[in-house]
Amino acid sequence: MEHDGPTGDRDKRVLRREFLGVRNRLTAADIGEAGRELARRALELPELAAGRTVAAYVSVGGEPATLPLLEALRARGVRVLLPALLPDNDLDWGEYTGPDSLEQIRHSGKMALFEPSGARLGPDAVTAADVVLLPGLAVDARGMRLGRGGGSYDRVLARLERAGARPRLVVLLYDTEVVARVPAEAHDRPVHAVVTPSGVRRFPLP
Length: 206
Known about the structure:
Strand content: 15-25%
Oligomer: single chain
Radius of gyration: 16 Å
Distance between the termini: 21 Å
């Protein structure tokens, strides 16, 4: 599943623009089809089959569609947690109980996000998750993830580490976003697996 791509020593901002540029050219049909295939592949993961609580997210823009996966997990009886962005870019969490449990929130200077409309459970709620599904723009052969740069999930990963929580970390991407190498900093943490429409790739456990 590894593909050649725009990797190397160029900084993360350049890479983000390149990956986002490719996503911006996708059609709604492309995004929906990728989401259906991604859900099918993800549901084959033993970690998701055994997980009782999964922290996930609602895709926006050109991200692979995640609603098919959220609905499939809910149908299995899995407790699904979704993030709500806080003013300092940290994440609170709420439960997903179906599409009608979402509301669209426009944060200042950011794109509109779909967030849980019910009770907030606090930033530490994620530490109860068996699996954390992460957004991203790319992942490399080491399992290092390139995010959007807001730092929200860096805080989540740091919170998990402080709590001694060890959920499986899985990033959801398109096939062409699995690349040889992305720039990584000391605070970056590898993921355990990437799911794309064509399959699953696992990385050595940290």
